[in-house]
Design brief:
- The protein is of the alpha/beta class.
- It is built from 8 helices and 6 strands, in the order αβαβαβββαβαααα.
- A 6-stranded parallel β-sheet has the order 2-1-5-3-6-4, with helices on both faces.
- Zinc ion binds next to loops.
């Protein structure tokens, strides 16, 4: 069963008038399950998990088409992942229904300095009987700011702003050099804040496995099934 981002990609492809060519000129055949060339397919490794938290991706127009989009990886791992294309002028009624669904307690994840202080929270405190739903803006930074400003249905949601110390702990653990996060890393941090350490670790490892397969494919090198990332994924 294709996941939410896969379905959104298919719908977006059906609407496009000219074929989308990924930057970097990947023109080879790709696996529809993982977007990699068949020789580097990672579908057999996909770790799908039932989590209490859900993820709602609001994706900028072109985002589902990018073979390197990492929202896809969230949908691989987190079973309750929802994905919607964002447009300023129209809103999918299914998105509004999801945000109004009483089982979910939505948080829009965004830097606190862009929101009124009374909306900003730094912890995931969920009311009894509710599940946290992380609304992530999957876009470039300038698109994400526009989406945040021009989506009135987000205005009433609390803004979950990731604490610098959480971010730097994550950066250290991942031995990264900067704190510009991709969407799946933001989701991994949110899962951690929601007390889902294992799902967070699996998603981090899954991103690294994807990156390994992607880079090896680009360089026309074989996959190392015992790479550090693969070992970490298997250890979860
Ligand atoms: Zn595949």
């Amino acid at each position: 069963m294709p996941h939410a981002v896969s379905l959104l990609r298919a719908a977006r492809l059906a609407r496009s008038t000219k074929p989308f060519l990924a930057r970097g000129g990947f023109k080879r055949e790709r696996c529809t399950g993982c977007r990699l060339v068949p020789s580097h397919c990672m579908c057999s490794l996909r770790p799908s998990m039932a989590t209490r938290a859900g993820v709602c991706l609001l994706m900028a127009d072109i985002e589902p088409l990018k073979p390197s989009n990492t929202g896809w990886l969230i949908a691989d791992v987190v079973r309750d992942t929802f994905a919607f294309g964002w447009a300023r002028t129209e809103t999918d009624p299914a998105l509004l229904a999801l945000l109004a669904d009483p089982q979910w307690q939505p948080f829009v994840v965004f830097p606190g300095e862009y929101a009124a202080p009374e909306r900003v929270v730094q912890d995931v405190a969920v009311d009894e009987g509710k599940r946290p739903l992380f609304v992530l803006l999957d876009a470039t930074w300038s698109e994400a700011r526009k989406m945040f400003r021009k989506s009135p249905y987000l205005d009433r949601l609390p803004v979950l702003s990731l604490r610098p110390e959480e971010v730097s702990r994550y950066v250290l653990r991942r031995s990264r050099r900067d704190d510009h996060f991709c969407t799946s890393e933001v989701a991994a941090l949110c899962l951690q804040l929601a007390g889902e350490a294992r799902a967070s670790a699996v998603l981090s490892a899954w991103l690294d496995v994807f990156t390994h397969h992607y880079v090896q494919a680009r360089n026309q090198l074989p996959v190392d099934a015992d790479s550090e990332a693969h070992l970490r994924l298997r250890a979860q």
